[in-house]
């Protein structure tokens, strides 16, 4: 299982901040696609991604036990 952490509007859209998803061997891009379909999450195309607390790109392959954080862009004022 992959542990997924959601922040900001993604957390608000889903109504929770953590998920466990079967995703061993998937790329980050495939995980995003699966989540978009299963949970109707919008905005995954623009998020920064961290895998096990290190920034990762869409080609990063995931393994059981990984923690993936999706971090939406933020703006300040």
TrEMBL record:
InterPro entries: Beta-grasp_dom_sf, MOCS2A, Mopterin_synth/thiamin_S_b, ThiS/MoaD-like. The gene is moaD. GO terms for cellular component: molybdopterin adenylyltransferase complex. Belongs to the MoaD family. Keywords: Molybdenum cofactor biosynthesis, Nucleotide-binding. It comes from Peribacillus butanolivorans. It comes from the Bacteria. Pathway: Cofactor biosynthesis; molybdopterin biosynthesis. PANTHER family: MOLYBDOPTERIN SYNTHASE SULFUR CARRIER SUBUNIT (PTHR33359:SF1). Heterotetramer of 2 MoaD subunits and 2 MoaE subunits. Forms a stable heterotetrameric complex of 2 MoaD and 2 MoeB during adenylation of MoaD by MoeB. During catalysis MoaD shuttles between the two heterotetrameric complexes. This is Molybdopterin synthase sulfur carrier subunit. Involved in sulfur transfer in the conversion of molybdopterin precursor Z to molybdopterin. GO terms for biological process: Mo-molybdopterin cofactor biosynthetic process. One of its GO terms (molecular function) is nucleotide binding.
